[in-house]
Specification:
511 residues; Rossmann fold; nine-stranded mixed beta sheet
């Protein structure tokens, strides 16, 4: 029952005062897809505008990451640049056409004031630092100096009531023309005040802001933004390795200090920590690929593109480090065997003692016709183990002879070195036998594929006798496969080992 109205009170006075309803915060965002690091996607799933600083040396992919984030964030995106223009953006990033209209790209350089205007800015900034924060002039200059003209132009185009995203590329190029000051320390004070005002205004405007810094050096801006990441480009045995390092992501627990990434295809793609289900959904049944005239395909297009196909008469070695999970390499070897069988080649395999011929044939039968597998595949079981220094048994020498006879112009012979080395009494006998297999492959043609751990006895001698040397290593929680000779880019390998399914393999070339 409503409360009785006071005598003589007007209806307006009797109605309880209603407090203004606070604005409903926007929903959490689904930022991009698995190509972006999980930590960064969580960082931008915020109800308030976030600011992220991307720093790194030239060529590390700062612009590519910033544009990938801009395309992944919900709502309209804007790009303010002092060095890249819209036609150039579309030429280098054709996929960006669907995410960034031409009128959302602002040429900040065209809005720079002339020499007189810059001196006026410098004078105003100097005056700004000498005024009392309580004065009216301070407030006027604060509003005037908060944003350079390029960012001011973006604010004039922002839609009301809608979450937006802004990339400034680069912040150094945007702010430095206005820092004309007689001393370096004064310029630093001016810069800090402008940056402080910028972050405050953008956060209140509900704008996700991505600032690109042209160097990897520490600046005062890192104290103001919500997140800081650094992109690095390093060399590992002559190949390019790209690494994203997390320095600060406010409110986001970090699973690791860094992740690997690739710029292949002009897209930023981080190497995930597990097999991406988005790739599993697109998995297609293995199909025999077209072979080159003088060899066979890996059965995986990405390896053909990066490492090149297997070539007859050129013995190849896949060397893996101890930390590499061999189950992740198994689908690569299986697809190579399936490619050879499907192409009508004879295949001979010498595997580890736990190897099951029936299980191996069943796995291949999921890739290629099982009838061809039965007709074309032969497997050998290694002889019993031999104690170091003991006499090598005749069965071991007989096995080597059988492997040599299996090498023909249209054959693939795959040998797991660990299964062979333990059957010899001395290391020189073992390496001499491997050298004999390599010589037979070079003489007759065909393909000899050696697979062995880096700790295999005599590995230096073996690597010197092969034509193609491929190494698998564990780097930053990722398995990388790359060519040592000839040198090739690295390929990140992820394997889907879910129970009941044949392992799917996803490969990402690090470029």
């Amino acid at each position: 029952m409503p409360a009785p109205r006071k005598k003589g009170a007007s209806p307006a006075e009797s109605t309880p005062r209603r407090e203004p309803t606070p604005p409903v915060p926007p929903p959490f965002e689904n930022v991009g897809d698995w190509h972006l690091p999980t930590e960064i996607r969580r960082f931008f799933r915020s109800r308030v505008g976030q600011s992220l600083l991307i720093r790194g040396a030239p060529g590390t992919g700062k612009t590519t990451l910033a544009l990938s984030l801009l395309a992944g964030l919900q709502g309209p995106g804007f790009y303010v640049s002092t060095r890249v223009y819209y036609p150039e953006l579309i030429e280098h990033y054709p996929w960006l056409r669907d995410h960034l209209p031409a009128d959302h790209v602002i040429d900040a350089e065209a809005m720079w004031p002339g020499p007189e205007g810059r001196r006026e800015y410098a004078s105003l900034i100097k005056q700004f630092t000498q005024l009392s924060p309580e004065s009216e002039e301070f407030g006027n200059l604060d509003r005037f100096l908060t944003l350079p003209p390029g960012v001011q132009e973006v604010f004039s185009r922002l839609p009301d009531g809608e979450r937006s995203a802004l990339v400034i590329d680069s912040w150094d190029g945007l702010i430095e023309p206005y820092l004309a000051s007689p001393t370096e320390s004064a310029s630093q004070v001016h810069r800090l005040r402008i940056e402080n005002a910028l972050i405050s205004v953008l956060s209140k405007a509900n704008v996700h802001t991505i600032l690109v810094q042209e160097t990897a050096q520490f600046t005062s801006l890192e104290y103001l933004v919500h997140g800081v990441i650094e992109l690095r480009r390093d060399d590992l045995e002559g190949m390019v390795v790209r690494e994203l390092q997390f320095h600060k992501l406010r409110g986001v627990p970090l699973q690791s200090a860094s992740v690997l990434y690739s710029l292949d295809g002009a897209r930023f793609t981080s190497v995930p920590r597990s097999y991406p289900q988005a790739e599993a959904a697109r998995d297609e049944r293995f199909q025999v690929r077209e072979n080159p005239p003088n060899g066979i395909s890996w059965g995986i297009g990405e390896l053909d593109r990066t490492l090149g196909p297997h070539r007859v008469g050129e013995p190849a070695l896949i060397e893996y480090e101890a930390r590499v999970d061999r189950s992740g390499l198994r689908p690569i070897a299986d697809r190579t065997v399936a490619q050879a069988v499907g192409s009508g080649w004879d295949v001979t395999v010498l595997a580890d003692p736990p190897f099951s011929q029936a299980g191996f044939m069943a796995e291949l039968g999921r890739l290629v016709d099982i009838g061809k597998v039965r007709d074309r595949l032969a497997t050998f079981t290694p002889p019993p183990l031999v104690a170091p220094g003991a006499v090598t048994p005749p069965a071991t020498r007989q096995l080597v002879d059988q492997l040599k006879e299996s090498i023909t112009p249209r054959s693939l012979v795959a040998v797991v070195l660990g299964a062979l080395s333990s059957s010899f009494g001395t290391v020189p006998e073992f390496t001499d036998s491997v050298s004999a297999l390599c010589a037979r492959a070079q003489e007759r043609g065909g393909i000899l594929l050696l697979i062995g751990s880096s700790s295999t006895p005599g590995m230096p001698e073996i690597t010197s006798g092969v034509r193609t040397h491929i190494r698998a290593t564990h780097h930053r929680r990722a398995t990388l496969v790359y060519g040592v000779h000839p040198s090739t880019p690295a390929v990140a390998v992820l394997t889907n080992n879910r129970r009941g399914e044949y392992p799917g393999t996803w490969l990402l070339t690090i470029r």
